[in-house]
Amino acid sequence: MGLVKHALGQREEAISLLKEALEIRRQSYGDDHPDVAQVYYSLALIYADTDDKQIAFQYAQTALNIYQAKLPKHHPSLKRASELVERISSYQRESTLPQSEFHNVQE
């Protein structure tokens, strides 16, 4: 639902919904569950579309860390998170990547 709100231009509501979902999933599954990582990944996507690339990187890296610990090496979610971390890192290094590039790694 958070990504839908973001697509509709309702960024703050999207972030609020995702942060609420994050807390619910952390309480339900623990901090290192792939479902928790999915919410971190979604938050990273939203922040990657803004000037908050450092926050985006932190969320993406957290998702990647969880996926690396819990999923098989060739899992698609692991690949997408890794690609997002790399794209955000590249943007931070070069500051030239258009925001639309981040949408290429969404689920």
From TrEMBL:
InterPro entries referenced in this protein's UniProt entry, alphabetically: TPR-like_helical_dom_sf (IPR011990)
Keyword DNA repair: no
Superkingdom, taxonomy of origin: Eukaryota
Presence of keyword Metal-binding: no
Pfam families recorded: TPR_12
Keywords, alphabetical: Repeat, TPR repeat
Coiled coil: none
Entry protein name: Kinesin light chain
UniProt organism field: Adineta steineri
